[in-house]
Amino acid sequence: MHGHFRCPTIGDSLSQRPRAGWVGLAAVLVVLHSWAARAQQPEVHYFHHGIMPPGAIGGVQLQRGGPVAGFFQPVEITAPQGVSVALAENGLFVPPQQTPIKVGLLIGQVYRLRVVNIPFYEGLEVYPTIEVIDRLYAPPDQIWRFPIEVVITEEDLRLALEGKFVTRVVYLEDPRVALPAAKEVQGQGWFDVAPDRDPLAVADQLGRPVAILRLGARFPNNPLVPDPTFLFGSPPWVRFTSPPASEPGDLEARKQGPSATTSENAVTRAQGESRRPTGRTAHKGALAYGNQRVPTSLKPVR
Question: How many domains does the chain have?
Answer without folding.
Answer: 1
